[in-house]
Amino acid sequence: MRFVALATDFDGTLAHDGRVDAPTVAALERCRASGRRLLLVTGRELDELLAIFPEIDLFDRVVAENGALLYSPADGTRRLLGDPPPETFVATLRERNVPLSVGGSIVATVQPHETAVLEAIRDLGLELKVVFNKGAVMVMPPAVNKASGLAVALDELGLSPRNTVAIGDGENDHALLEQAECGVAVANAVATLRSAADYASELDHGKAVVELVDALIEDDLAAWTTPGTRRALPLGRNASGEISVPAHDTRLLVAGSALPGKRLLVRSLLALLARHGYQSCVLDPAGRFGDLEGAIAIGSEERGPVVDETLAALEASDANVIVRLAALAESERMRFFQGLLSGLRALQGERGRPHWVVLDDAHHLLPRRAEIGTSARVELPNALLVTAHAEAMSPGALGAINAAVVMGENTHETLGAAGINVTERDGDVFRAPLADDEALVWRRAESHRVERVRLPLPEAAFSPPPPALVVADLPPEASFQFRGPDGSPHLRAQNLALFLHMAEGVDDRTWLFHLRRGDYSAWLRNAYADEALAAAVASVERSSAIGAAESRARIRRAIDECHLVAGQAEPASEAPKRIQCSSDSISASNP
């Protein structure tokens, strides 16, 4: 089972007007009966939720207060995940007649009181985060959101975000959907969430949850083509761009005589998988991968590994596990692997991990003379098979591969030994010998073409999936600060969503002050490293004839039409800029 956990928002997703209907409850019961775990992730305060949702016991964990409180319905335990709101802040809001609700870590109000909230944060010099959700205004500790709360809940259950599907509707669900392996937006979701989601349902509220549960039970979302497409494994580059394979449903063969190149590529892929949160189990006969950072080693040069010890390490941690086989004879290695397979399948069925099984010297573990590769093909959803002797491998294992990287000499023969047919149209790739940093890549999904690429790709080239940048927070020093000619109102926008919201509320004098100075384009250029968007905004800033209302509308339109809204770019991170907009100057410098 790939998706072993379902995380759902409450208001606007599971519930309509605070009520969860009978068909939706029945779907949750079916999901739980399928062996999956249920998590409720909501901005609601827990006591309020307990009063209106009697079926809350269906959930294994409840993340309330937008990530700040964790609740276990089975035993009633509560765990605060954020600091309590400052008493002075709550008192100030009440003095200013702001209607509010105070939870363990959250302070909540509604629009249009966000300006009073922001001014109180400014006046008191607090480092708090403001989150909007369809008219609700929530004030949180800066490091807390639905994603951080979900991570803690999954960790308690021994599960991974890479085996979780999440569904939501509001602005505060961006982080939730981004954290999960597959993010689903209901039909009534805000436009930016639907744009960023892996799957945008045509059904609203609980009906979309029912649709998702039925798809999970039917085939574990196999019929949906989008889950997991945000994460891919780059294998190299050619004139067409980056050549990659999906991080799921990939059986990749790395073959050929170029040992240093193969080792570098495999080590890079392992590091990249770990960076994305995928767990790997590496069977390492020759000790090539025992020094991987953060990995757990089982076995040594003198002592062979034990199956139960290996499975216990995989179950207890989500770190990569390196199984050292050097102390085992060749025949013992094959028997060890056969004994380990059933345990790996059981663990993958229960927890969805390890996500990848990596076999170095795969011709020893899946040899032609012992046809165990057929069962491995069926039961291992993701495998990396590394060998210098594809001709000595099990035909069943080779028949399961859907991608291959071949390097070194005699690549034509290696491809043939792996069962990959080379057509006349592939002739050009063989006309010149491969350089030391080149390889041939074959992908079944790409019409069986063989492509020449340059590799290995450095680890830094595999960047994390871009966040939903409209709501992803910038560090304080890179946030935009509204300060008019007299230095007020001094409001800080830590992301694009808050910038757009504040833009509608600041007075015309302040708005035009920054517009005429080119502050908006400078901020976007330095904080987000997006020249196209900055140029579009700069053209608005240069249009001296337009007023505040028209310039606001044009800048909003430029941002809405830009790929940042869909999460295709990310804040500049290689050399973070320090941005400060003041009545005196605007500067951008490396801190």
Model description:
With 591 residues, the protein is α/β, with parallel strands linked by helices. The chain has four domains: 1-78 and 146-228, HAD superfamily/HAD-like (Rossmann fold, 3-Layer(aba) Sandwich), CATH 3.40.50.1000; 83-143, Alpha-Beta Complex (Hypothetical Protein Ta0175, Chain: A, domain 2), CATH 3.90.1070; 232-461, 3-Layer(aba) Sandwich (Rossmann fold); 476-589, no CATH class. Helix content is 35%, strand content 20%. The chain contains 20 helices and 27 strands. The strands form six sheets. Strands 17-18-16-19-20-15-21-22-23 form a nine-stranded mixed beta sheet, with helices on both faces. It has an eight-stranded mixed beta sheet with strand order 5-4-3-2-1-10-11-12, sandwiched between helices. Helix 3 crosses helix 4 (114-124), helix 17 packs across helix 20 (548-561) and helix 19 runs antiparallel to helix 20 (548-561). The radius of gyration is 27 Å and the shape is globular.
